[in-house]
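Running this now, will post back.
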Amino acid sequence: MGESVVVIGAGMGGLASAARLAARGYDVTVIEKEAEVGGKARRVSVDGHPVEAGPTVFTMRDVFDGIFHACGTRMEDHIRLRRAEVIARHAWDAEERLDLYADPTRSEEAIGDFAGAEAARHYRDFRHESRRIHDILDQTMMRGDNVSTPLPLLWRIGLTRFGDFAAMRPHQTMWDALGKFFPDPRLRQLFGRYATYCGSSPFAAPATLMLIAHVEATGVWLIDGGIHALAEALRGLAESKGARFVMGTSVAEILTERGSGARGVRLANGERIAADAVICNADPNAIAAGKFGIPSAPAVRPLPQHKRSLSAMVWFAHAKTQGFDLTHHNVFFSPDYRREFDQINAGEVPSEPTVYVCAQDRGGHSIKTDALANGHRERLQIIVNAPANGDTHSYPPEETARCTQEMRATLARCGLQLETDMPHSIASPAEWERLFPATGGALYGRASHGSAASFLRQGPRTRMPGLYCAGGATHPSAGVPMAALSGLLAAKKVDADLSSTRRSNRVAMPGGMSTPSARTGATG
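Update: finished.
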């Protein structure tokens, strides 16, 4: 085929696009500023143990099965994974606890035991509704590649199915919609939390996001080695098809050429790599902010600070625990959910936060549960939602210490005790801004607030010919499978555009370069 593609960033989106394009015969070079692949799916060392430091929930397995299949292999030949029987364990205090299960019947029974038969019936109705929304949007939007306004989406759904379009509830907030299914405020809070999966508030996000509950109910998978192991497997997959990885080197500039758009990159060490297309697996706002050079900055629209998604305070720990029987995914709820998000909107870390704990040695293959019962330390990732103000607020030690106390208070109220002097490190929004510049620490790109939010995310194409975007901050949304889908959509656009230029006549340009006679730069 001969055409070359440079991928900036080895996050999930970049890895997916690299594997797909390499399998299609393109000459692919991936540039990653860190020493390891994965992007946000990182690992950090705590107390001599590798702790997963990025996303922890793995759903929509079929997306990745498709990537491996397209490269002539199977995912299970590269990583060990199994379906989690318990999706998540939830607690409101030391007595109020509720598990959701892979088996929806067990979840319904658990909800009935927790909140009564009527609540179980409401959950059954909610499950059907969230599935309906998912089925409407799965192919038309989440896996679609040209949804920049509601009109193409309505066209794809079908003009005769306007009832389905209305069923997505784009003009109703998730919190309001959940109130009709769950009079019990605890269940409303539990299912409202799914808005945070894409960095949003349930009080501002559209009810459409209820589909996330269905995605999770169809299967949560535990990977031996965590999401980072999946990233490493994708790298190996791409390399097996000829992709080249340049690690520990950042891209200083996206090279552009008048009339041709993006034509390669210049690395921080001065090396230039020419390419027929460039896929940027970074937050699109980094392009707009000029982090890849001034000429490429107009290729995407800048994201205003108030449109940013949530950031987080994250603790990576190796600690002894007692008093609460942890599973792999655990959620400890705040007593006042609305106040929590009001504080975040005001630029504050919540004083009584909801806390998520990923107990990485529970439920998988890596350690025996009796070792934990005998007082051994275990690897934990602990997350509290925070404002994306890491570019304007430094989070000094006294503030992170206060946040740690408040996090511990939530866990203690729900019956979980962490050892006092546990080995750990902390990442604040300021640290996320350092790792992912021009984001303020926002971990999910644009917040999904308002009925039009899903149509305002950056698509795979940019305003500049030859420059494409992928990653969790681009269409379709945030999260591990969505980031991978964005990479597949970017690869699809690259393939279509370069195939189009191969079919067109090429014309001589000043300087002796040959360029396509026409390239499109529409946002898609």
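Residues 117-142 form the longest helix (26 residues). More later if anyone needs it.
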